[in-house]
Amino acid sequence: MNHPGAGTTGTGPAARPSGRYGERRTSRVLVASVIAVGTALLGWLLWAALAAATPDTRTSLISFRVLDDRQVEVRFEVTAERSSPVTCTLQAMDATGEVVGVKRVAVPPGPHDRRQVEAVVGTRSRAANATIAGCRLGADD
Fold first, then answer.
1. What is the pLDDT of residue 105?
2. What domains are defined for the chain?
3. Phi/psi at 30 (nearest 5 deg)?
4. Whole-angstrom Cα distance, residue 66 to residue 105?
5. Of 54, 68, 64, 69, nearest to 117 (Cα)?
6. DSSP run (H or E) holding 75
7. What's the pTM?
8. Is residue 21 within 8 Å of 30, Cβ to Cβ?
9. What per-residue string of b and e applies to 10-35 under the rule 16 or more CB within 10 Å gives b?
10. Is the pLDDT of residue 8 over 70?
């Protein structure tokens, strides 16, 4: 009776024919690639979470006052390193929540970390609300 691998000289077990017995071999390169991508993704996620948890600037809306159908005055406070200029973006919204005005405000370095700022945002129609869309360190070029 002839069996595959019978009569061969070798020290290891006879190789099984490929595709039999439901075996699947996963490439080591594929496994290593998946692990590398997963590790990189996890590292980026950790970095992003830590960066968001410790912002360089903090802001607080103090008040806003609608001056007329074309302007809203916004008072806000910025907390950042006193020697750093900050650029903030203010938004004015109408009663439906649609943005009707946007203004970038340069906040110069000051004697204290906390700086109060007043700015007038021009609008295309009457504003009902105002907010600070965001602030970042550095002067706006």
1. 95
2. 58-137 (2.60.40)
3. -65, -45
4. 18
5. 64
6. strand 71-79
7. 0.62
8. no
9. eeeeeeeeeeeeeeeeeeeeeeeeee
10. no
